[in-house]
Design a protein that fits this description.
This protein is mostly helical. It has four domains: 163 residues, no CATH class; 75 residues; 113 residues, no CATH class; 96 residues, no CATH class. The protein contains 18 helices and 13 strands. It has a three-stranded mixed sheet with strand order 6-3-7, with no helix packed on it. Strands 1-4 form a two-stranded parallel sheet. Strands 2-5 form a two-stranded parallel sheet. The radius of gyration is 43 Å and the shape is rod-shaped. The relative contact order is 0.07. About 22% of the residues have low confidence.
């Protein structure tokens, strides 16, 4: 057997295999590129109609997919396993060798099938034929499918044109969603801080801490749900805010302030000096404990009478805000006047307990108010984040009698409103009345400033970032700024109207005298609107407009 002929045939087969691998690598690269670009084009088209991924991310994914398709296709085409015998048969067919090389390989694998001289002649003949084979012409290095190349080219052109000249409207939606999710994550941390502050408040009992933290924890759990929308987040926060406000006692703070003022009177007596100082420092727990520790039996008759006078003065100052403590102090004073030290001590014990209870109520009310403010800040932050997706869009100015503007005129009775509103995405003016109202307005979508005027009041105006909170008619506030809050009958019918702020009869109150700066009543109107939205009182298509409207009016 001629080893030289065998070596020559095997070398030629190896060269032909290398050419085939290079050719298949090119084919695989084009095919992989076409598949990758087709998938990228499908994603780009879907992303035009669904908020799937940002355009910038699509470009990055397209580049990565194209590169990966090229490399994977080329690697598979080059390194795909190939049998030398199968390759030899293919070469014989393509190069017109009449099965010479494949027969030589078969005889080499099974020499017993033919005599040695025949095997040697077969190798010699195969080498001569292979040497003359037109391998370079028939085994071209670059033999790429035109269809696959055309598909890759069309997809590439379509993607480049789409990215460059067709802005994706879903980018705005994605930006809004991303901003909302980021804001929600930030508010989850702040709510956690609010929970920790409540748990570390030594002025609260365990039951009070549990009652205060429960709505916050529920809101926190709701915000941690994956894929939470802005509307769902606002609904969870509104529910928490309602529960927290139900824990606020409107009289608790007034009681605490009255007790603090009473401390000035009690500080003038040596016996009650520690009580008075604790009250002045706002430490009602210590004041109540100090009052319970007073033993009238150790006092002289003159000291008892002086103490009675001090207690009577303190009782008189507390009669309007804390009648329970005032009555206990009055009972102690009368007992001291009558020389009943046992009865006086019992009354002082009762007064001290009443002070401590007032302190606990004030602490709970204050903590609930602070937590409610935190929830309000969370609502505002999420609402503002939701508006970021609309930045840069041209505002559409519209005037509406029922108002979607960012300026506000509030009136009761027959009110006419005119105004100008500016907003992100929509700028709208508002005129609003409790009876009948109409309004016109324009907007240019450039900012958050707006101004409207109604018959009974003027909304806040924003100019250059400086706010001027002008007074508006607010029937839930009697006596102007700092006046008493009252429950106004709904529609003048006499039934409580706690679902609509400021709705009531148009009697003598509607004179323009009952006005307060709008920033002092804004929260009431906003919370009432949010509550109505969350309870389903508004059509679904109006809910986002209501939230955006009140967010734009924030002082």
């Amino acid at each position: 057997m001629s080893t030289e002929a065998i070596r020559e045939v095997n070398g030629l087969i190896t060269q032909w295999l290398l050419r085939v691998r290079v050719r298949d690598a090119g084919r695989g690269a084009v095919r992989g590129l076409a598949i990758a670009l087709l998938l990228a084009l499908a994603l780009a088209l879907a992303a035009r109609f669904l908020p799937l991924v940002f355009t910038a991310t699509q470009i990055q994914l397209t580049a990565v997919a194209a590169g990966a398709g090229l490399l994977i296709g080329a690697a598979y085409g080059f390194f795909k396993p190939r049998s030398r015998l199968a390759a030899a048969r293919d070469f014989d067919r393509r190069l017109g060798l009449a099965e010479r090389t494949s027969m030589a390989l078969e005889l080499e694998a099974a020499p017993e099938r033919a005599p040695a001289w025949l095997v040697a002649q077969q190798w010699t003949d195969a080498a001569a034929a292979a040497r003359r084979a037109p391998a370079a012409a028939r085994l071209r290095l670059f033999d790429i499918s035109r269809i696959e190349l055309a598909v890759a080219a069309v997809c590439a052109v379509a993607l480049i044109a789409g990215f460059a000249f067709w802005p994706n409207p879903q980018d705005t939606v994605l930006a809004q969603q991303q901003a909302v999710q980021q804001a929600i994550a930030e508010q989850i941390e702040k709510i956690e801080q609010a929970i920790a502050a409540i748990e570390n408040n030594d002025d609260l009992t365990d039951d009070q801490k549990e009652a205060l933290t429960e709505p916050l924890e529920q809101a926190q759990q709701a915000l941690q749900q994956p894929g939470l929308t802005e509307e769902q987040a606002q609904e969870a926060l509104a529910q928490a805010q309602q529960e927290l406000r139900s824990l606020q006692d409107p009289n608790a703070q007034a009681q605490a302030q009255a007790l603090q003022q009473a401390g000035e009177q009690l500080s003038g007596n040596n016996t009650t000096q520690s009580v008075g100082e604790a009250l002045q420092n706002g430490d009602l727990q210590a004041a109540g404990e100090a009052l319970q520790n007073i033993d009238p039996s150790t006092l002289s008759a003159e000291e008892q009478q002086a103490l009675a006078a001090q207690l009577e003065q303190a009782a008189e100052s507390l009669s309007g805000t804390d009648p329970q403590t005032a009555q206990a102090l009055q009972d102690a004073a009368e007992a001291l006047r009558n020389g009943d030290t046992t009865g006086a001590q019992q009354a002082l014990q009762q007064a001290g307990q009443s002070m401590q209870q007032a302190g606990q109520q004030a602490a709970q009310s204050q903590a609930a108010g602070q937590a409610s403010d935190q929830v309000t800040d969370a609502q505002r932050a999420i609402a503002q984040a939701g508006q970021q997706g609309q930045q840069g869009q041209e505002g559409q100015g519209q005037g509406q009698g029922q108002g979607q503007g960012q300026g506000q005129g509030q009136g009761q009775g027959q009110g006419q409103g005119q105004g100008q509103g500016q907003g992100q995405g929509q700028g709208q003016g508002q005129g609003q009345g409790g009876g009948g109202g109409a309004g016109t307005g324009t907007g240019n979508g450039q900012g958050a400033g707006g101004e409207t005027q109604g018959q009974n009041g003027t909304g806040g105006a924003t100019d250059g970032g400086v706010s001027d909170y002008e007074p508006i008619y607010a029937p839930s506030h009697i006596g102007g700024s700092g006046g008493t809050d009252v429950q106004v009958p709904e529609g003048g019918s006499g039934d409580p109207g706690d679902d609509v702020v400021g709705e009531g009869s148009t009697g003598e109150q509607n004179t323009g005298e009952v006005t307060v700066p709008y920033n002092e009543v804004y929260a009431d109107y906003r919370d009432s609107a949010y509550s109505a939205v969350n309870e389903g009182d508004y059509p679904p298509e109006i809910r986002d407009i209501v939230r955006q409207y009140f967010s734009s009016l924030e002082p």
